[in-house]
Amino acid sequence: xxxxxxxxxxxxxEENKRKEMEAELEIHRNLQKERDRISRDLHDNVGSxxxxxxxxxxxxxxxFQVLTRRPMIKFKIYEQIAGS
Length: 84
Fold this sequence. Notes:
Layout: H1 2-69, H2 71-83
């Protein structure tokens, strides 16, 4: 009788330990999912901003040169903008 009680108590402790480990594992999985989501969001946001910066550096000087050195092109561009 005492032996059965001890075995039941041991089984109960082992089951509780297993449940605690599963709960910790689930918490870890959820944290990792959130980290991955944040990482993707940051990657997308930073990539978009870098693309905008790079294109601004490349396109702005070219447009400035075209518009200041070639007045006819400047006039045509303004015509197209006004016509739309």
